[in-house]
Amino acid sequence: MTRLTVAEAPTVHPRLLDVANGIAATGGIAIVGRPAPWGERSPTHLERFTPHAFLNRLPPLLLAEHTGPARAADLIADGIASESSRHGFDAVWSLHDTFTAVDHLFGYLADGISGLSVETRVSGSRFTSSLATGPVREVDTATMFAVAVVDDPSYPSARILHVVTPDALWSYSPEAGRLGTTDNAVGAALDARMRARNADRARETAAFSDRIADALAGRTDAASAIRSDRRPNHDHAPVETVATALGGFTLR
Question: How far apart are CA 198 and CA 111, in angstroms?
């Protein structure tokens, strides 16, 4: 049985390690992340969170992406616990046992996506300025409602730190810039699936380009060429293949 220990996650609040291990022990998949590092300036929002800024009574939800009307469809994990550690606001999510949620997580691991982007309501802030940073909004009190997985987070250290499954542990490596596992069999299964998926996408893209070229040359109807593009999102793999790559997780 996989366990996330203090040695592997020295900066994460110890209580959250117990929560993540408990989820994996009952057959689930736990995602441990730091959506808001303390004191890190966002180059896009020109703000940073002061230590212990968040007043959450409930942990934030985890979304596949920031959305509007389709919000419920993009919810992939429930927030189980959150804590303010010495380094930031940390949370543990329990991945939904649905094909869509597992497929999204599979895509993140395969494509090296681990960034986190927050949805917050700020209730207390002030502005400071220095020659080094210019004006910065210091967020002193806020509530975090949701977190979305993104490729390029506004706060560079806002990341998924660990993924704990019943049979494998994935951890973020700053050197590699992605989540990786020390389980060679699981890593090899995911790498093989990633290579196959990328080859499928390359073939689909080439075929689509050929159809557009035919349409531009007048050999086929342009609308028909575009309608025939049916490239699937995340190249939905068989459930068994995805479960194997993630380390033994089975859908219930």
Answer: 10
The CA distance from 122 to 47, in Å, is 11
The neighbour count for residue 120, using CB atoms within 10 Å, is 20
Residue with tokens 């086929």: 220
Cβ proximity of 116 and 27 under 8 Å: no
CB-count burial class (<10 Å; 0-12, 13-18, 19+) for 63: buried
Q: What count of other Cβ atoms lies within 10 Å of the Cβ of residue 242?
A: 23
Alpha-carbon radius of gyration of the chain: 21
Give the C-alpha separation, 194 to 44, whole Å.
Answer: 31
pTM above 0.70?
A: yes
Cα atoms in the 13 Å half-sphere on the side-chain side of 52: 1
- Is the model more confident about 3 or about 162? 162
Cα(186)–Cα(180) distance, integer angstroms: 10
Structure tokens at 68: 């509007």
Give the Cα separation of 20 and 12 in Å (integer).
11
Residue 241's CB: how many other CB atoms inside 10 A?
A: 16
Give residue 194's pLDDT: 56
